[in-house]
Amino acid sequence: MDRYESLFFNANFKEAASEAGWVAYRGELVLKEGEIADAQGRRKPPVEVMKQAIVLTAGDELKLLAGSIDELQFFPALLDKYGADIKPGSLVVLYTVNIDNPFIANVNGASVVCIPMVQGMVWNEMCEVLGLEKGDFKGMSAADKVVKVYEELKSHVFKYPAATIEEAVGKTNANKRENHGAV
Prior knowledge:
single chain, seven-stranded mixed sheet, 32% strand
């Protein structure tokens, strides 16, 4: 998890789980850094981030990478940053704003599940898909909740058609993220 630390943005938490060696993170992940702003090497805010990111590692293995991206076209940037760690056994779930239909792609031997979502919260959507409720997490630390979701995802079967990322990029739409709140 430490090798991703420089790519954390608006972090909610990074903490160890009860199981030795397991670490969870929730927040945003940088996909494309902002340009260098001054002579000291400080950067402007990121150009693109994975919003509502959920990351789980066990030792040096990436177990879970989930979050929301605005455009499927940002997937190559995600691969540039995290692709070396996406291996068979990794679970990747991307809630994607500009796709119409869910699909499953094989990337580096791992299943990457892409699900359309223009509004909503990644955590809530995943819990709903898995049938998890608030009571299922009672008394757990934040990191252990992420481990619980990962354990449920391992046995969950997504019934979506297979496609390649390249095919899906050719079928994207112009949807934009819908935000609600104070005006």
